[in-house]
């Protein structure tokens, strides 16, 4: 905010700022302009990529705020909130979590093309390219950090719901849903989604909202509507990306109906199921064998 920035640092901190709950770019009036376009294509690309990631994750972020409102849970939290028995997590000040499932690992200094990230025990999936890192007892990993990118990781055992980013958040939230599943060592995962009109003040009080819970075990994903009080205007679950699938499935079933619209990447252990077109107002099951 105060003082003149550089192109590189503005790119880095614009990417970080995209993952603050209240995200905006501004500076004091006696400094050089630092909006992305003013500082050139590198800052523009870094800000755009980070904001697109933020927009895609807004369904998960929105759900975290619902939980904060109803249970007092934290939205953004330090690592030791989730890993209190890991003393190494106590001193980590340059990484943070969105809820229990998503870790943000920014690059904060100049002339850095990598970042040393501390990953608590478990498997962590890169949300940019779906590569994975297995931390058996909690350890540091060196992650590539191109100037226009920021490392954002999905914790194994969790499910997040995303959408394709559009120019505005209002347009983004009109799209269909894409589910990203990070399987743990036991091939299990859980998650949830809160959804309402997006512009009401009393949706929870009036019960004009939807709450869905998701679980995976034994190669079966189940989506269950716990509360359904808001018309979703035809929005559907269109795609599911399941990370940590060890073996290529021979078949996939959506609500007991076989589908050929799936692919498997053996290098990433990634199963992608397209054209699901399932309404979430009813139970949805996806099975792979």
From TrEMBL:
Domain of life (superkingdom): Eukaryota
Database matches in InterPro entries: GH, Glyco_hydro_31_C, Glyco_hydro_31_TIM, Glyco_hydro_b
Gene Ontology terms: biological process: carbohydrate metabolic process
Glycoside hydrolase family 31 TIM barrel domain boundaries: 1-64
Keyword line: Glycoprotein, Glycosidase, Hydrolase
Domain Glycosyl hydrolase family 31 C-terminal: from-to ranges: 72-160
Gene3D superfamilies reported in the protein's UniProt record: Glycosidases, Golgi alpha-mannosidase II
SUPFAM superfamilies on file: (Trans)glycosidases, Glycosyl hydrolase domain
Molecular functions per Gene Ontology: alpha-1,4-glucosidase activity
A Pfam family the protein falls into: Glyco_hydro_31_2nd
Family from the record: Belongs to the glycosyl hydrolase 31 family.
Name by which UniProt lists this protein: Lysosomal alpha-glucosidase-like protein
Lineage summary: Eukaryota, Metazoa, Ecdysozoa, Arthropoda, Chelicerata
